[in-house]
Task: structure prediction
Amino acid sequence: MFVKIITNRELNADGCSNIEIKKDSLLPDSIEVDNPNLLKNETLKSSSLSMPAMTENEIYKNDIACFIMNRTLKKSEIVDCLKHIWIPPLDFNFPENIEGKQKRKFQHKYLTQYSWLAYSDMHKGAYCKFCVLFAFSGGGIGRQFKDAKNDFNKHSKTEYHLLSVQRANDFLINFESGFEKTVDVLFDKHLQQTIESNKKRLIPIVKTILFCARNNLPLRGHRETGSLSLESVRSSCIVGEQGVLRALLAFRVVSGDTELQRHFETSPKNCTMISPKVQNEIIDVIGDVIVGKIVERVKQFRFFSLLCDETTDISTTEQMTVCIRYVDTSSWILGEDFLGFEK
Result:
């Protein structure tokens, strides 16, 4: 069972953002960022695990669930969530859940192993305190702990979590400096990081499509299923059971392309950027770039002409071939380039 946290931000009078948090169902991950320094920021700790005992009112005041209500959070409340969140004492009796035929419960050691983790006595479940405040989705970790460590490790590698950790770190630094920078300025920096990360993810995919185009290789096969993050799927691609593009991408991963492997492991199913639609869009963009370079080259010369020839293919679709012929005035060599088909 999972919980999604939606955050709506709007700037207030002093330039900082109020954050409205609502509780709903989990959405796919959508925020992407690539910054190796983000992981070290996870050492942010809300408070010591050996904190003094609290009264019942203090526990419920600082319970992580108090920051997941349908109201706008103040800056001081965000700081409380980050620095003064309630942590169960070592002898706390966590409730047991019956999962199938097994009884399982939250383990106190998880709080030591994952500094971003917070337990809610009110909701009897675990949350990521950074994602609760700064992610657009995915703040809830859940109330079932059959494979808890695997779920926590998977969450800690998601892009929206890494971005939330960075945002939390920046917020605390900005808070301690008296809010010298407005929150929207900080978010602009994260947006730029996300753009650069997406560019890095596209590079190996674009290069592989270019390789197929230059060698007249078809991109897709009859059956293309499964995530390339799975070793079994990569093996089936390499032995030729799927399309050429997926086979080449799987070969890159097996050959040690860790960036591409991380992309397939952390991206949602609707954001792997290798779908047939995305492939066609990349091919169209490559074609536009090539035509643009041809036009720029022809503009440097004085003489050129267009060559057009219309033909009807087997499906009775009329297509006109467009080529351009020009004279290179520096060497007086005749050049001819294909521009494309026009229906």
User: Anything to note?
Assistant: The chain is about 40% helix and 20% strand. The longest strand covers residues 318-328. The two ends are 52 Å apart (CA to CA).
